[in-house]
Design brief:
By secondary structure, the protein is of the alpha/beta class. It contains twelve helices and nine strands.
Length: about 260
């Protein structure tokens, strides 16, 4: 624990126009995630989803790490009380909620990412990290069989070989390896992180929101082997008659940026 870091709080939600930012905020403890944080994160996601003006969500951390993962003290306490399932299910639900969130999500990796927080970041649609970031999945070292949907997410997004290396060896990897296996979409110097995240968020927010929601859903369903092709087909047909395609074609013809409301 670094006494120079400010006291922590539950995650903080800020909204700036079409963008929402959710920031883990326990820097003295490397933004470990407590049960109270899970509740707050779920509430923030609900609030964002109810706000029709928001088009993109950025998840990040305060201080020198993105997150040290779930609070091991809470896991140990629940294990002694013979109720470990409750902790696991709550965190798993949070990761799944992020993956299935209808808006595009960006994880702004301001530092290292460890344990369960690696899955929260992986559940986001995009991950941009600084040159000093690293990741570690220590489940095997802790004697923990990871929750099923987390393993599925790793395999579907990173592949079998990378998932086995991360889970079975419990070895830390550097940003170059994170980029190679597809965990990171980009590595940037720390002083360029905000600019790169801003550029991606601006690009995402400018695109047709209904089309993005539908295609994100289809991509996630295909990745987990549960593709509802009929529903995707209906969304496709609806888009051909919708207001977004009218604006998109009109903007293309007029050589201007589309304005999707």
């Amino acid at each position: 624990m670094d006494a120079r870091e400010p006291e922590g709080t539950t995650p903080v939600l800020t909204i700036d126009g079409a963008r929402a930012a959710i920031r883990l905020n326990r820097p003295r403890e490397l933004n470990k995630i407590t049960p109270e944080d899970i509740t707050a994160l779920m509430e923030h996601l609900d609030a964002v989803e109810r706000n029709d003006a928001i088009r993109v969500v950025v998840l990040t951390g305060t201080g020198r790490a993105f997150s040290g993962g779930y609070d091991l003290g809470d896991i140990a306490a629940r294990q002694q009380k013979a109720v470990p399932q409750a902790a696991r299910t709550s965190f798993e639900d949070l990761a799944n909620r992020i993956e299935d969130f209808p808006l595009p999500t960006i994880c702004r990796l301001n530092g290292g990412v460890y344990g369960g927080s690696t899955d929260l970041a992986l559940a986001c649609d995009f991950r941009i990290g600084i040159e000093a970031c690293e990741m570690l999945m220590p489940a095997a070292r802790l004697g923990l069989h990871y929750y099923p949907s987390g393993i599925r997410r790793y395999v579907s997004r990173l592949g079998v070989a990378a998932t086995k290396k991360l889970f079975l060896t419990a070895q830390k990897i550097d940003p170059a390896e994170m980029l190679r296996i597809g965990y990171l979409d980009a590595i940037v110097p720390a002083d360029e992180l905000d600019a790169r995240v801003d550029a991606l968020a601006t690009s995402l927010a400018a695109n047709a929101p209904n089309a993005i929601r539908g295609m994100k859903r289809a991509i996630n369903e295909i990745a987990r082997g549960a593709f509802d092709e009929d529903a995707a087909g209906r969304r496709h047909q609806e888009s051909m008659r919708g207001h977004e395609i009218k604006e998109g074609i009109a903007a293309f013809a007029a050589k201007r940026d589309p304005n999707f409301r």
